[in-house]
Automatic annotation (TrEMBL):
It comes from the Bacteria. This is Site-specific integrase. GO terms for molecular function: DNA binding. Gene3D superfamilies: Intergrase catalytic core. Residues 194-459 form the Tyr recombinase domain. Keywords: DNA recombination. PROSITE patterns: TYR_RECOMBINASE. Coiled coil: none annotated. One of its GO terms (biological process) is DNA recombination. It comes from Paraburkholderia elongata. The keyword Transmembrane helix does not apply. InterPro entries: DNA_brk_join_enz, Integrase-like_cat_sf, Integrase_catalytic.
Length: 497
């Protein structure tokens, strides 16, 4: 059996509305057909899951199809097949001699990645069991005492960390704790997230006004054409506003206003792509204002959808951040440092809007703020890939190398925001609000001290200990042991050497 993954548009009723999902086509009996259970499962989860989640589900199903095709003669029971399949996802299929008779040639996957994929496959199998009566690949069984304790510990830990944990049912938890999967998975290693890679604050202004100059226009007396103000605006939102790289691409033209209390500073709201409040400048056929942004796009701009529901170049992700307002469903950009971020963004935004006016790009085609100036995509929504390329070029212009390990990719700016909050001793609750995390623990990866900071702190501590310790801090182990024995000779009985 061979298979291929393709993008599919599925119509489920007479409205003509299409759900865009990935589909797996398999060859069976000389015909190419869609793997229907996967299509049904993705449609059942279409509103709640992202396209990335759907592709991961397809990935692990495809791995299972390949594994079954190569090893179907070795297993009589589905659970035996799944147990060995699980092992191969973790270990890979290549032997010590570098060969793989199955011709799969899988390399071992990271424990975290493997666990995620296998959990998704187990849940899909459970759904098939309920939907079609299929034999589950990884059935539930009675948990051992040790597993029950682990399940209870996990429940209590989750409940205590949850804002609504007091509503959790201990009766349901007790029943769930008594169950365990037939095939157990590896436990992922725990530890810190690794050193935070933040864009250097002392190079940020250089990035803006050297990196984002327009090639060939560096010496132009016209400040509007001299700089890529669109790239500057987005980068300020990431670095001083703490936004994720995908979030500025959901902004509409009307989402930027002057701060009512500080007119020279920008007041920026990033609305939920679907449920965000629609502008009050357009009414539907019934004479009423549109209920949300998705309806507004459908009514006023046919052909455009919320960008996290788009595919291809128009797509921009949305990680469901914590909103500042649940009536109009938006998050407010909190500038750090306060003042300068809002003022500089306001000036850059005005100059960018001048660029749009000169390019004769209005808001008649769509409402999105950031647009392309290229001839083929003129006026179309600006893409994340195009911004990443522009950011990488800007980084190179100031003599840096774009790399995640250097903090010089676009995500390094959000890390810089978190590090700035930590250095400024900003309260954790305030940092959570500024970074729009649902959990206060989510910001740990952004606020952990760097390896160099930890090293410097420990070296300072070492100096302090050395100055106040009765025993000298010596690098030689034998000298240290001799000093300890000499100090304790009055209290310990000497042993024969």
């Amino acid at each position: 059996m061979t298979h291929v993954r393709v993008p599919a548009r599925v119509v489920t009723d007479d409205t003509g509305i299409r759900a865009e999902i990935p589909a797996i086509l398999v060859e069976e009996g000389g015909q190419c057909i869609a793997l229907e259970p996967v299509v049904d499962y993705l449609l059942a989860n279409y509103q709640a899951r992202s396209l990335a989640w759907m592709n991961k589900l397809c990935q692990v199903v495809e791995m299972l199809l390949d594994y079954v095709a190569a090893n179907h003669a070795y297993f009589d029971k589905p659970e035996d097949l799944f147990e060995t399949f699980t092992q191969r996802v973790y270990t890979g299929t290549i032997g010590d001699d570098g060969r793989d008779p199955s011709n799969l040639y899988w390399f071992p996957k990271r424990t975290k990645t493997a666990k995620q994929l296998l959990t998704m496959l187990s849940e899909f199998s459970d759904w098939m069991h309920k939907k079609y009566g299929a034999i589950p690949l990884n059935p539930w069984r009675e948990a051992t005492i040790f597993e029950q304790r682990l399940n209870w510990a996990a429940f209590i830990n989750k409940s205590q960390r949850s804002f609504l944990g007091h509503l959790d049912s201990y009766a349901d938890a007790a029943a769930a704790a008594k169950q365990a999967r037939n095939t157990r998975q590896r436990r992922a290693p725990t530890g810190d997230h690794g050193e935070t890679k933040a864009f250097p604050d002392d190079r940020f202004m250089e990035l803006l006004f050297v990196g984002f100059t327009v090639p060939g226009k560096q010496d132009s007396p016209d400040i509007v054409e001299r700089y890529d103000w669109r790239g500057i605006c987005i980068t300020i939102l990431l670095h001083w506003g703490g936004l994720r790289v995908s979030e500025p691409f959901h902004l509409w033209v009307g989402d930027i206003t002057s701060d009512p209390l500080k007119p020279d500073e920008a007041y920026v709201r990033v609305y939920h792509p679907i449920d965000g409040a629609a502008p009050k400048d357009f009414r539907g056929p019934d004479g009423r204002y549109l209920p949300n942004r998705e309806a507004y796009l459908q009514a006023r701009y046919p052909g455009y959808r919320p960008r996290h529901r788009e595919t291809g170049n128009r797509k921009s992700g949305w990680k469901n951040p914590k909103l500042d307002d649940t009536t109009q469903n938006f998050m407010h950009v909190h500038w750090l440092p306060a003042g300068i971020g809002g003022r500089l963004f306001m000036q850059a935004w005005k100059l960018y809007m001048y660029q749009r006016m000169r390019a004769r790009i209005g808001a008649d085609r769509h409402p999105f703020l950031f647009v392309s100036f290229r001839s083929l995509q003129h006026g179309e929504p600006y893409t994340i890939d195009a911004y990443r390329d522009a950011h990488a070029r800007a980084v190179r212009r100031i003599g840096l190398t774009p790399a995640k390990m250097n903090g010089t990719t676009e995500h390094g700016h959000r890390h810089a925001y978190g590090q700035r909050a930590r250095r400024g001793a900003v309260d954790n609750i305030v940092t959570q609000k500024g970074m729009h995390h649902k959990s206060i623990e989510s910001q740990a990866v952004y606020t952990e001290p760097s390896i160099s900071e930890v090293t410097a702190a420990l070296e300072k501590a070492n100096e302090t200990l050395s100055s106040g310790q009765s025993l000298p801090m010596v690098p030689d182990l034998e000298t240290l042991v001799s000093a300890v024995k000499k100090k304790q000779s009055g209290n310990l009985t000497k042993k024969g050497r």
